Amino acid sequence: MSIYLPSSIGTTTNLVSFNDFNATPVYRLISKQPQRRQIRELDLPVPFESGISDFETLIGQTAFVLEGIMYPGNENEYDLGIRALRKISSLDISQDDILSDDGYVPYQWDEFTGSRILYVKVLYVQIVENTRQGLVQPFRLICKVKDPTIFGSELKQANTSQATPSASTGSALYSFTYPVLYGKSTYSVSSAIQNNGDISAYPIGISVYGPVSNPRVTNVTTGEYIEVTTTLSTVSNVLSISYDKDSLYVTVDGVNNLRNVTSASTYFKLPPGTSVISLTGSTISTGAYATLSYRDSYPLS
Prior knowledge:
Largest sheet: 10 strands, antiparallel
Low-confidence stretches: 169-185
Number of domains: 2
CATH class of the largest domain: Mainly Beta
Order of helices and strands: EEEEHHEHEEEEEEEEEEEEEEEEEEE
Helix content: under 10%
Oligomer: single chain
Mean pLDDT: 82
Radius of gyration: 24 Å
Strand content: 35-45%
Structural class: mainly beta
Shape: elongated
Number of strands: 24
CATH architecture of the largest domain: Sandwich
């Protein structure tokens, strides 16, 4: 990442663009690469008595710091620029991610291989106003990082509805599980996943559409699977699964179904490279399919 390439932080309601020389004022970054920092390294005046509990989680812990300089053209631009920086730390702003706490926003920048995103919560805008440099104003954005993972900006999706299902048929019905099928017909559908990043990634979300009973979504590459004891009678019945290191949601048609996840299930991650996911079930009919959304993932150095 070059400090001269464009980047931005925030949502449409509080967006600040860096290195955009056609905008006013111009915000120019000093940092080249997204880096984790220690609050103690920065000697920040952390307001212990402010009542903002987020700071307590950052004392002596990892933070993400954006450092830059604002170049306004006049006093009016100076005031507007300072106001925009302060608005970034508004905890009323949320990113478009149901798994995240309020206040997280995307920091997005360009690299020669594509765009990257890091989701951060700006807790503290450090601005020491003075007239030594005229209207030129250095600033720091002190951010909390929920997950120290850099994501590719493209939201990818594996969709098994685009695959040709394979069928297996048996001739007798038993109450035991055998390594081969007896007495039932099943269809399985699979799709490839390509994580071009360097580290394993949590899926953004998994959706399963019927008709299928006891659906199982398997990462064929690793052998890990998530299985839910439920019946999706038609394609309009949807099993939704979302999880990361801090949260877990399993619903059927919007109703909590977490209790029906089988004990042998694993909330798997997607390793770098190519993986294959498949959808199977105790009974599964043609037309059943699963989708899995994900992003390429890279470590925050």
